[in-house]
Each structure stands twice: as structure tokens, then as C-alpha cells.
Amino acid sequence: MTDVIEQAGNGERKGERTRRRILEAGRRVFGEVGYDRATIRAIAAEAQVDKSSVIQYFGTKEQLFREALDLRINVDALTVEGDPAASAERYLRAMLERWAAAPDSPMAVLLRTSLTSEEAADLLRRHITAEAIDRIAFHLEGPDPRLRAALAGAVMFGITFHRHLLRTPDLAGAPLDDVLRLAVPLIHELLASPPATATQEP
Amino acid sequence: MTDVIEQAGNGERKGERTRRRILEAGRRVFGEVGYDRATIRAIAAEAQVDKSSVIQYFGTKEQLFREALDLRINVDALTVEGDPAASAERYLRAMLERWAAAPDSPMAVLLRTSLTSEEAADLLRRHITAEAIDRIAFHLEGPDPRLRAALAGAVMFGITFHRHLLRTPDLAGAPLDDVLRLAVPLIHELLASPPATATQEP
DNA sequence: CGGAAAAATGTACAGCCGTTGAGTTTTGTT
DNA sequence: AACAAAACTCAACGGCTGTACATTTTTCCG
Prior knowledge:
The structure is a homodimer. Chain A is mostly helical. Chain A is 68% helix and 0% strand. The radius of gyration of chain A is 21 Å and the shape is elongated. At the A-B interface, helix 1, helix 6, helix 7, helix 8 and helix 9 of A face helix 1, helix 6, helix 7, helix 8 and helix 9 of B. The structure holds a DNA duplex.
């Protein structure tokens, strides 16, 4: 009679569980070796699942990659509010701490891949522009707000990259507080100060 | 049975020529798509040579990659001499101009690959430490010279990365002089100023 | 010339990859 | 217990890769 198949029952269906495990395994493997070197077979093994299941749940490797990423890279705690310069330290500290805690985060995945995939590069560019530059620039006064915001992002990114991705010894080995003490003033200077001594007309 | 085969003749043997062409094609392709996505067949096509010749001259893909890289990434013009702070602008300007002129340089290759190959990461780390941090830190006074040098490198790298590798619009589209006007003071601050309260600048 | 060394090519192979479709086991409802 | 749907696994295919070997073409000196 009833052909409607509705099942709530317990908290999580079996399928949901393995789907989640594949997704997590995908994040781990993609994060470690990037898109190209990551194989469906390796992800399946990591998730203790047959390789076919990966396809069954996600259709294609690229789709799995996409879903492994978009679980909001949103940097909720990183939103800039109030005085932009005052939040510089919060911002950079959160960025560094977050990356230290989860080196294989979606962000790392995206970064690793962005250098060899134009599509991933586009995604990353868009994300940085929308989530960071737009928000920061919105609060800035003075000339070239977007460029200054972009530079601030680039500076923070460069530090994070060297410390956590490339692991340059001098940066990776330094205490977080030392890094912040030296780096935060730079961000301050970029965001807070009107850099020109006076308004000059060409 | 074979005597010593010595032939000098003209300035460049035929073999040398194609060997060089393969090397150049390798640099181009590796620089564009990174190690993984680069195929021997594509490199051979780019060099207008049979795929077998690539193997014949370089033995293996990895060996070709190695040779395509090591042609000194040396940044001769980037050496830091004299006042470190004074050379900051020269340094960053040279870095940005160089990269703009040759986006597929060995450095780009190395960077692209360093994110997915531990070996390439090692090479890059070593290069940055030896060529940049060591030299800069040598001229620095005040506390934490190595950390400050590493941070300066990270800052310049971050800007270069966003401008030329990722091409974030706000940074890629800005005039070089604007970027330098905003960025150079940051490097100055890192390299010249003793950040602690102990001493004051003259 | 002529013939040998050097250079360039064509062919083939084994390996790994993503993906497929058919088959088997597990799950949940009646 | 019976049975259908969902979940999972197995075996295989075709495509692309790096590489090895045998062969042909080019170069060059007597």
C-alpha cells in the first residue's frame, strides 16, 4: 500500500555514515597530497570502503573534491568588525592557530590545488576576494582601500604559508607570540594609517 | 674496439641543440602545470621532438625535472648588501619585476611543485633559507634577526604569490609603484627597526 | 662517395588510473 | 520469516602514463 519510504528512526542512516567517512577521508588525502596525486583508491582505502562506493556516493572524483571543499571554508571567527586595525591581531592569530590545529583543512586542500588547477585557483581567488578583501576594505578609510586590504591579506597569507605549508624552519619553529608581536604592527600599518603624507594630485 | 670519439666541429652539435630544446620545453610545461600534470609526451610535443628522445637524453621524467630546475635559481641581482633596509625596495622590486617578466621561471616550477612533493618542498625550503634568510639576517641588528628576516621573506613572498601566481585581481591589477609604496615600509619596519623598547633609532 | 656513429623515431608493454555495471550482502518493514 | 530496497563489493574495461627496445634517418669524416 504505502510506497512512500520514510525512515527516520535512529539519528543517522547507515549510508550517511559511510558517506561522511568518505568525505572525511577525501579531505585528509586531498589535503595531504593535493588533487592530482590523490587517488580514489587511496581515499577508499583510507575510509575502509570499496572504491566503487566512492563513485556511487559522489559520482566522480572532481565532485567529491568539490564537496570536500565547500563545507564552508567560511572563516566565521575571522570576520572583521569594528575597528579594522584592532581586529588585525585577532584575525592573524585565528588564522595561524586554526591552520596549526588542522593542517589538512579544506583551505590547505584548495591552496595545494590552486597552483595546478585553474578551476581551484578561481575558487580560491573568489573566496579571498569575497571573504577577506571585500570585508576588510569596507571598513577602511583613506586611499586605495582595496589594495591595502589585498596587501594585508597577502602578508598574512605569506606568513601562514611559510609557517604551516612550507614550514620554513625559522618561522615554523618560532613561538606564536613572537610571530604575532612582529607581524601585527605590519597589518596595523597597512589597515589603519593613511599612508600618504598629504593628498597629492598628479 | 671503439677508439675515443672526439668531435668538436662547429659550435654546437645537433644533439646539444635538441637537448637544450627539450630542457626549455620542460621548463615551460613544468612551469605551467606543475610536475604531476606535465607529461613527457606534452613536453616532447612542445619541443617538437619524439617522446623517446626525452627519455634518451634525460633517462627519466624526474631527472628532466631536476635538470630543468637546478639551473641556478640564484637570485644574483637580489643579493642583500649594505644597509638591509635600504635594499628592501630593490629586493622586492626585483622580485616582482622578475616574476612578471617570466611567470614560468624555475622558481614558479619549484613553488607549484613544492605543495605536493616533499622533495620539492625541501629544495625550496633550503633555497629560501640559504639564499634569502641567511643573507638578510647576517646584516640585521637587534633581537630575533632570523625570525625577522624570515618574516620579511614571507611578506614579500605573499605579495608575489598573490600578484603573480594566484593573480588576486586587486593586487594583480595595481600598478607596481603603488604596491611598492605600500609594501616597502613594511619590509623597512621589519628589517631596520629594533622592535623592542630597548634602543631607539638614530 | 661510403659507411659508421649519432640522433631521431615507431612500436610495444606494463602499470595505474577513473569509472562502470552486474552481482552480493545488509538493513528495515510487514 | 519473507521480501524489497538500500548499501556494499567484485571483476573488468578503456585510456593515459612512463619507459624499453628495435629500427630508421641523419650527420659527418676517411
